[in-house]
Amino acid sequence: MSDSLVTFSNVSRFYGEVLGINKVSLSIPPGITSLVGPNGSGKTTLMNLMCGLIRPTQGEIGVLGISPQHPERLCRVLGYCAQFDAFPKGLTGYQFVYSFLRMFGMSAAECDQRTRTVLQLAGMTEAANRTVAAYSKGMRQRIKLAQAIAHDPRVVVLDEPLNGLDPLARAEAIALFRQWGDEGRHVIVSSHILHEVDRISDQVILLSHGYVVAEGQIHSVRSEVQEQPMQILVRCDRPHVLAARLFQQDHVVEAKLTSDGKGLLLRTRDADRFYLLLNRVVLESGLEVESVAPADDDVSSVYQYLIGEGASV
Description:
- The chain is of the alpha/beta class.
- The chain folds into 2 domains: 6-223, 3-Layer(aba) Sandwich (Rossmann fold); 229-295, Alpha-Beta Plaits (2-Layer Sandwich), CATH 3.30.70.
- It is built from 11 helices and 13 strands.
- The protein has a 6-stranded mixed beta sheet, with helices on both faces.
- It starts with 5 loop residues before the first strand and ends in a 6-residue tail after the last helix.
């Protein structure tokens, strides 16, 4: 097992006769790695295995060379933010983080300093002395993030960490993940929203029904998607003008006006050529474009492209 990687060697986990993951082999380097897939694909099972919360039915796991079967060593290098809440009753946000750090044998002064630092990092300083029970969903998510990185772990495992956060808090959290990845940590994030994965990931692991169906740097996985016609929605003042030009292009498979008559939904085999064409149309005709965005930029569409079936996210 490498002391610089998170590794899975032919790992399977069954819950009785129910498959969690099957024959997974991975080597996860430092940086941000996103686990993506619909509910039931195996993301949480994979995370629980690397955190030592469950044991594999077969195979070996190494977290920087440490087996999850040695929790005392593992917890010093790994921080975990669970998807679901589990808070001791009556604790304030400050106490929630502080009491966690005390388990590492730190002095009271060091625990206090670290607690205040990570509370500020998570934007929770003002709410530090309120009970966690009074927190909103977004605040509970942020206090869990603060606890996960309070002991300065080299591996941070985050299960759906952006759930419940408002747009500003999501942007701040993504900036934190990026910072941690740039510092050389392993940041392993589960998500079912592909555009967020695109924004934050150095690499992705796509899971389906307990199997890894694709992995690698984000651009290599996206290139597999781009072999299929991409759907793009353009909202503009004269979509019929754009449609007339598109029908002349061999890379455009389909183009149709939206029901409100203010947009055009198209499918193209070459998104780059379409964007170049759009620039020309804007310059030549004075077309006013409100927005341009992929219309199938989600995990369900990726699954349709890669494994030929829909995925309910």
